Amino acid sequence: MSDWKKSDNLPEDDFDYSRKTYYDLIEKGNAALEDMIEVARNLEHPRAFEVVSGMIKNVSDVNDRLMDLHKKKKEFEKKDVLQVTAPEGTTNNLFVGSTVDLQRMLQDMNNPVKNDNVIDITDRLDDGKEWFLFRQPKC
């Protein structure tokens, strides 16, 4: 390994290293392919052309792997974004407590306790609707 970092081992570094390796393999494969095509033309032997077709397949496979690498990087980045994003609303509520606490809470909901901040003026209204006034707390 020439000038690549070994210690950090970040996914971005691995992607860059793999990408550089694939580019090098593609460039060397193309150069070797051109040389082999010239040899196959001069020899006019079926085996030489068979080797050329194998080299073409190998270079195209490396190109496919390079494209797959980009696809995997996008999926990896997308997964990172999904892990960072928090849900926007409450999806599941959980009560932590004993059954006695739950029964008391439900009982308190059915029998509301008079609160000093709420004034009931139902008896003062003519239309029968319930209206509540909220007193501002004194600071």
Word description of this protein:
This protein has two domains: about 10-85, Helix Hairpins, CATH 1.10.287; about 100-135, no CATH class. The protein has three helices and two strands. The chain has helices spanning about 10-45, 45-85, 100-110; strands at about 120, 130-135. It has a two-stranded antiparallel sheet. Helix 1 packs antiparallel against helix 2 (about 45-85). It is rod-shaped and about 100 Å long. Mean pLDDT is about 75; it is low at about 130-135.
**For the residues shown, what is the average pLDDT?**
77
Q: How many domains in all?
A: 2
**Physical arrangement of strands within the biggest beta sheet:** 1-2
Oligomer designation: single chain
Strand content: under 5%
The SSE string, one letter per element, is HHHEE
Q: What is the top-level CATH class of the largest domain? A: Mainly Alpha
**What is the CATH topology assignment of the largest domain?**
Helix Hairpins
Total count of helical runs of at least 4 residues: 3
Structural class: mainly alpha
- What is the total tally of β strands? 2
Q: Which second-level CATH architecture of the largest domain applies?
A: Orthogonal Bundle
Helix percent band: 55-70%
What's the alpha carbon Rg, rounded to whole Å? 37 Å
